[in-house]
Amino acid sequence: MPREFTHLLRPEEAKALFQKAFTPRPRGTEVVPLLEAFGRVLARDIIADMNLPPFDRSTVDGYAIRASDVADFNEALTIAGEVRMGELPVFSIGPREAARIPTGGALPSGADAVVMQEHVRLLDDRRIQLTRPVAVWENVIRKGEDVREGEVVLRAGTRLRPQEVALLAGLGRTEVEVYLVPRVAVIVTGDEIVPPEHFPRPGQIRDMNTYSLTGLIRGLGAVAHPYGIVVDEREVLLDVLRQASRTADMILVSGGSSVGERDVVAEAFTALGATIVVHGVAIKPGKPTILAIHEGKPLIGLPGHPVSAMVVFDVFVRELLEGMLGLTLRRGFGKEVRAKLARSLGPAKEREEHVRVALEERNGQLWAVPIIGKSGVITTMVKADGIVVVPVGGAVLPEGTEVDVRLFD
Amino acid sequence: MPREFTHLLRPEEAKALFQKAFTPRPRGTEVVPLLEAFGRVLARDIIADMNLPPFDRSTVDGYAIRASDVADFNEALTIAGEVRMGELPVFSIGPREAARIPTGGALPSGADAVVMQEHVRLLDDRRIQLTRPVAVWENVIRKGEDVREGEVVLRAGTRLRPQEVALLAGLGRTEVEVYLVPRVAVIVTGDEIVPPEHFPRPGQIRDMNTYSLTGLIRGLGAVAHPYGIVVDEREVLLDVLRQASRTADMILVSGGSSVGERDVVAEAFTALGATIVVHGVAIKPGKPTILAIHEGKPLIGLPGHPVSAMVVFDVFVRELLEGMLGLTLRRGFGKEVRAKLARSLGPAKEREEHVRVALEERNGQLWAVPIIGKSGVITTMVKADGIVVVPVGGAVLPEGTEVDVRLFD
Fold this sequence. Notes:
2 copies of one chain form a homodimer. Chain A has helices at 11-21, 162-170, 209-219, 234-247, 259-272, 306-325, 379-383; strands at residues 29-33, 46-47, 57-58, 62-65, 76-82, 97-101, 113-116, 120-122, 127-130, 140-141, 152-154, 175-179, 183-189, 193-194, 205-206, 223-230, 250-254, 275-279, 283-284, 290-294, 297-302, 336-341, 352-362, 365-370, 386-390, 402-407. By secondary structure, chain A is of the alpha/beta class. Chain A has 4 domains: 11-27 and 181-325, Molybdenum Cofactor Biosythetic Enzyme, Chain A (3-Layer(aba) Sandwich), CATH 3.40.980; 29-51 and 156-179, Molybdopterin biosynthesis moea protein, domain 2 (Alpha-Beta Complex); 57-141, Beta Complex (Molybdopterin biosynthesis moeA protein, domain 3), CATH 2.170.190.11; 336-407, Beta-clip. In chain A, the strands form 7 sheets. Chain A has a 6-stranded mixed β-sheet, with no helix packed on it. The mean pLDDT of chain A is 94.
């Protein structure tokens, strides 16, 4: 590997190259109870084995009638019965007959509409008169109007929101087959890094990447296995990598911001038997990124700077993890917003720049305020709402330019 | 209470009235380990008890120098030592001296800049020459540049994202005081409702609201206690309400779409000793909404129709729960998108209409496609990405009108 990154791949080139070497997919499926299924990704298409609702259902309190028969809505109708909730009426409705029905009640046979009780005059105990005409099937949810038997109602690859889980409940699915969740090992290297519970000696700094990466992994619905801090020695790192590769589906190694450390990570990957596909990407921050494969599992070397590690996660790891989660049907809305730059950015000469921005609304206009700070400064991420990308080779983006802001989750 | 909702409050009126009766706030705090703190809401301001970084730190591999001394950058500098990671150098840098330093290394005393190794020529084992000038503090994160000792770095009321947790780790907080999570009881009433594991008899329908409401509650970071299905009898419901009010901080009762059921819910609330503040709101769907208070806890009556229950949750319950979570510092970006209506909507004559829409992008323009369907039809929510509100008393919103779409989480 070149020590000085003489040739840096563009992010798209790096992604394309890695995609040729690795196709992210779930490692299997499991069946979970419905109340545990929120946020999980459906592993099979769901085909309805019944109609929903299973019967014609009133949407209002009122009277079930035969609208097709009521030529003159002023005519008196005879009350033939009353529908009880949760029961199929045993009587039927003949011409010029009506039955009292509650919201949600099943229409008696013969009825083809419901008139709201507000639009009915009670003539006596047994007779009503409509005060306005009613269309056929008015105030009725038809049998199968929500879901038709045999219909594919949900597709594999969908992340289950509350409404999808509710629909599964409505169809009687008390369990659901979802994709297994990927397990991601998080390893932090760096001889200057100490765990948060230690008081750093002069020259030392506390570990932040275990926490930011664990949070990002969990935020996507995957499981993080933090391995803690590993000293910058090839054999020690190799040993931890071997351990992690036994159970993890993906391994993230953060650290290696200095050339020597970078070499240790790349060497340990190679010693493990991994194939290094990408080493060095033209992205700022994030240059030292390593994308490797070992036994069908991605091994990602992330920079040690806390901001850089989060940006590289966002650019490379997120997509891989979504693939491993089985998330093929994505709802991408709300992940980006348009805003005007509050300050000029760029030009990005050699590396695509991922600039942290805070969003501010002034007089109905959204402004993206670039947050200046080095990639080791975590508070810049704390102040930020998202990222603006400045592509390589473009001109300066002047103040007021409309840009897309990629929002943090 | 009026059986026929002769006077319906507008949603803002209902909210204002309820706000006078109830101020949502967290019921207390707890201390959790940092790795369990993601998504929790900070209960106290965090004041830094140290500088971050705690020392001047190099951001590159190179040589620490005294930039303030290097008048002519072409002059030869003598290598005075090498900085090791995780150690404070014991030597210092004098005029015309340099020390090899890795990324993240601590600057030796005397040094005030780092020159990248790419911009250095090695003259021999002991001397280097710079190939370009270096500014004072170039390639250095100054001590306290990220966080200054004594500074308030995070405010109470912030939801902890990965970067906030990382910052806490950097400051050595291994535990963090967060607000207790509200517990929300979910009760479903309706004589026609059976649990998903039952095969519905004619006239019966399976419970969906337990699932949609549990998902919405959990999605906000609160805890749902599903109580299952309760028959539409005042005494039975009262008994379950009494049970629930012992442990829950909020109670949701869905059901009561028919007048009789609505009365049972309102009567049970009153029999419990609750004060009904709002009964009936001019919102479509969602008219039968009940907002009540009992012993300082909100009791919310939601409509039985699955779509209506979700809309009322969104309009009334979400805000209350966010207050009870202690979430005072919200990041609201990405919760709404602007889109053009693909079909005309409105006018809304008497009730504010909350219309489900699917989003479609065509040639870079986002379109909101209204999804037509009754409020009992859950698949309309499955197809939808969000909600467009049509205010009361306005004109028709013609096709092509720019609207705000409130996105589902």
